[in-house]
Amino acid sequence: MKNIQFLILILVLTSSCNFNAKIELPKAETVELKPFPKVEASIFENIFIVDENKCKKWNLPITRFKIEFPNNVKVDSAKIGIENFDYISFQIIENDIVIEEFSIGYSDRNRLFEKEFGEKSAEQTLTNLKKRFPKAKELYKGMAEFYGQTNYQLNAEIEIKEKTPQNFIGIYKMFRTNYYPKTTDFNPINLGWTANQNSEIMNKADFGTKGLSGEIWKTFEFIE
Hints:
It is built from four helices and ten strands; from the N terminus they run αβαββββαββββαβ. It is an alpha+beta fold. It has one domain.
């Protein structure tokens, strides 16, 4: 997958296997899949659908979901024949600056060990993040509610003073958490957000609710 995600990539590279490391595909019997229904876009112009066949081609854990998005976002999605870390990612760009970034990646987490693995992953991520950005701040880490689920969350902040080739500059808040299907405690997706001071996203509670990335997330639905 061509990586347009500079800040998300930092977290991918610095976190342990419990966030985004490469793993073997899960066994098919972990989830009993029903016939795939017809799914159409109803909010935005475009729809991205993930099913078990696409996951096998991308060499990613099997999951099913749909998400919609408008035309005015930069999109990157998983591709065949290369190492993929995300199913799909979105960038909201204003005046050639990335103000919001949202990715849906895979996770090898099991809900039974969500807290334990989350703590270890967050500590390692923050340690390595501060090596690259010494003034990086931990804003929150721990179990918390997100859209009806209580999972481990990591919220941090960094400042980029000089514009990067990937068009990042400013103070960026980062947020990561897992999100599980209703029918299984295995194979959650990993949600990653990055937003700078020009976004509507100002604090942890705003991720997934405000900004265009929040409107995109609201169209997400597991297909079980």
